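Order emerges. For instance:

***
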Amino acid sequence: GLFLQDSVPASFVSSISTKRSLPRVTWGSSVKLRRRDLREERFLSVTLSSINGDASGELSESTHLKERNSDVEREIVKESKPSVAKQRQGSALNTAKHLWAGAVAAMVSRTFVAPLERLKLEYIVRGEKRSLFDLIKSIKASQGLRGFWRGNLVNILRTAPFKSINFYAYDTYRNQLLKWSGNEETTNLERFLAGAAAGITATLLCIPMDTIRTVMVAPGGEALGGLMGAFQHMMVNEGFFSLYKGLVPSIISMAPSGAVFYGVYDILKYGYLRSGEGRKRAEKTKAESNALEQLELGAVRTLLYGAIAGASAEAATYPFEVVRRRLQMQVKATKLGALPTLLKIMEEGGVGALYAGLIPSLLQVLPSASISYFVYEVMKIVLKVE
């Protein structure tokens, strides 16, 4: 039997029995679809039977082979169509699972660190001057424990799609850059570029929810009546594009933030996987059935690398975060651009004002980034994301 590639002409099959002395050749075929490269193959099976050949027999045999070849080609086309449709369906399902893994990671991590997120916003948005412990006591006394989770639902509605798109976009861009470069492994530059592109993509799609949440937490936001009230207030008084206030500094901050966050994590991750210990662990995890045991880095190392990546990204881009929040707080009558806002912040509090709330922000980012990456990696295993 022979496996025939698509490039093999039909004349090859006919040429098998061109001599009268050869016995009659009959053949069948089947189609195999490989999951990796999705190439079709024809299998030629040859059965020999002893007969006396003559000129007419040779002609009829050649005609018979050509007819059979045409039938097989029609069979291949017929069977390949549902296979392509099935492939597209599988790709769409894999994308949905990939996005869902990122969304679950965001929901779990944001809910866990919501109190720290609230403290960070108090320093950035309200310009809080009290110490961290005094602020905690004040929120607890005035709003109770639920006050620390104020706005968490809106935060989840904002961060779930943001993180979902961010994670998925990074993996997509990184794989595409790897394909274009033709390298065996993604370079550090490609990781940083993919991270920057992912941050920009997620920001463009998700900044309206972030703006609404900032307005809700800002002074006077309580009187707007929640999510829909804040949305209606902005649409009526400032127009649709008010939802994109701070877009430029957001993109300027998210591009390097995404580059550092994903780049640092991937560098740490693949540096470990290339080590002797990493290779041994990779071989061991293949036989495990538990999702936690299948983690390439292990639970502790995944949490640690996620925390390092998050802290690096936050420290590198925090001034942009401060400017962005201030821009989102502005009303139309006193609206300033990004550069004038930056200069105003520095005039009021010096360079240190650009890092106001950095400590509570890092306290929030460290567990958030580590839990986010941990849950994301676990969900990809549970959902069997390719």
Observations:
- The chain has twelve helices and four strands.
- The radius of gyration is 31 Å.
- Residues 55-112 form the longest helix (58 residues).
